[in-house]
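Hi V.,

Quick status before I head out on leave. The structure for the redesign project is tokenized and pasted below; the design run finished overnight.
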């Protein structure tokens, strides 16, 4: 069982006397079911597990009356050998996207304190009409993604003694011992190749055989494509698949602003924006929006129709290229294109830490990879896949009185250091950046989670 941070969030939720039903969102294969069942094993005497995909007959439990007493009566019939223990019973509604009435019932179950409720599902945001059936104000939402880099280290036996030492170096801005620094860079390069999908990480830990991990990655990608065929509107299926296939070439460009013309000749947001939004809402890709100005709050200066698109898991992105790509990354033989993978992995790390993705590119000759908020000020973040210390764009923005920015971070293979107002951090220290606006990353109200980015698909 891989150690996941979501367990701490589950504990926080359970300790709250006013807890509401919890809905765990996330793309397929990120470990939602496994995590919930492990949490249930540790904390409850009785668990009613209803997987609506594997057992469609469970949908009938939520036909007719939906109050807590009615649901409990039907659960006792569906699970005759299971006895409820008030205060120590969990009702787990897995793959809840297949049971709209189950989603509606969460409102009524929220008022009952005899048992706890966790729901889990993939593709929950794809049908906007059905999304309304989630009872706003009666549930809490938790987003689970691939393993972050710290979880990846835990899986490979790197404990808190090493992570704690690295955290101290980060906080005190002091260099990491060279042997540890070199080893951590090696782990981070492996993370770029393997990614954070639990089955892939577990396979790599057990076998150290990348070919097996690659096979699992490609099976997951194939599963995503099958989801498009199975769940997407008929008129959108082909567009979504072509949009998905274009991601590899979109990231290969020096100028990484998403271009619809790469998908199809003459394509525009009006014709293909819905296809891209489908992939985003399925959790397969993430968006990074351009800013009109580097000022707080960053969201207030977001340019809705200018964005870059990253794969939510860099390992899956890697698997979509030729077989030798992973070896080229690890050997440093990939050339300039390796920057695309490192930019994608940093986007993945920032997302896993609850940090919204923004970049700044006021012209074709100036681009800052990411803009984040740190210590209540805008902070520039530049990603280097090697040891190159040249930072033309960073220096331009920092030295210009036009932008009034004082903070900048360069992530590279170099050790901790500071020069010219730029804080140099090794790539692996990305795991210590945090979303300063959230004390409990990922746990959100239904109102917050239900906000979609449909406004990015403008005509």
């Amino acid at each position: 069982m891989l150690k996941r941070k979501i367990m701490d969030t589950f504990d926080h939720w359970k300790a709250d006397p006013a807890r509401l039903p919890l809905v765990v969102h996330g793309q397929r294969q990120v470990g939602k079911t496994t995590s919930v069942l492990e949490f249930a094993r540790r904390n409850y005497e009785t668990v009613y597990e209803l997987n609506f995909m594997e057992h469609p007959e469970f949908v009938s439990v939520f036909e007719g009356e939906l109050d807590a007493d009615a649901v409990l009566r039907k659960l006792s019939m569906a699970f005759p050998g299971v006895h409820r223990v008030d205060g120590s019973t969990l009702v787990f509604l897995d793959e809840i996207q297949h049971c709209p009435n189950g989603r509606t019932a969460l409102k009524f179950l929220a008022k009952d304190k005899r048992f706890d409720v966790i729901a889990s599902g993939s593709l929950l945001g794809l049908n906007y009409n059905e999304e309304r059936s989630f009872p706003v104000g009666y549930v809490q939402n938790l987003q689970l993604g691939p393993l972050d880099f710290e979880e990846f280290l835990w899986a490979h036996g790197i404990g808190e003694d090493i992570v704690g030492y690295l955290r101290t170096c980060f906080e005190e801005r002091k260099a990491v011992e060279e042997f540890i620094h070199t080893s951590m860079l090696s782990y981070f390069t492996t993370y770029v190749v393997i990614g954070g999908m639990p089955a892939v990480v577990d396979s790599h830990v057990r076998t150290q055989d990348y070919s097996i991990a690659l096979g699992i990655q490609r099976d997951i990608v194939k599963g995503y494509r099958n989801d498009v065929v199975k769940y997407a509107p008929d008129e959108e299926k082909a567009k979504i698949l072509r949009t998905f296939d274009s991601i590899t070439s979109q990231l290969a460009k020096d100028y990484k602003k998403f271009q619809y013309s790469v998908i199809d000749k003459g394509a525009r947001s009006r014709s293909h924006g819905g296809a891209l939004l489908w992939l985003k809402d399925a959790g397969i890709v993430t968006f990074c929006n351009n800013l009109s100005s580097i000022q707080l709050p960053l969201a207030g200066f977001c340019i809705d129709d200018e964005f870059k698109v990253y794969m939510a898991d860099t390992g899956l992105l890697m698997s979509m290229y030729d077989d030798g790509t992973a070896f080229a990354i690890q050997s440093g033989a990939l050339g300039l294109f390796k920057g695309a993978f490192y930019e994608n992995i940093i986007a993945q790390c920032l997302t896993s830490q609850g940090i919204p993705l923004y970049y700044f590119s006021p012209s074709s000759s100036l681009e800052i990879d990411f803009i984040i908020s740190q210590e209540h000020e805008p902070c520039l973040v530049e990603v280097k896949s090697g040891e190159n210390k040249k930072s033309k764009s960073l220096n331009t923005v920092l030295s210009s009185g036009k932008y009034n920015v004082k903070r900048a971070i360069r992530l590279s293979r170099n050790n901790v250091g500071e020069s010219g107002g730029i804080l140099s951090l090794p790539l692996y220290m990305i795991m210590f950046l945090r979303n300063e606006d959230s004390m409990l990353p990922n746990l959100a109200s239904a109102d917050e989670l239900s906000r979609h980015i449909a406004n990015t698909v403008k005509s």
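Above is the designed sequence. Residues 210-231 form the longest helix (22 residues).

G. will cover questions while I'm gone.

Best,
W.
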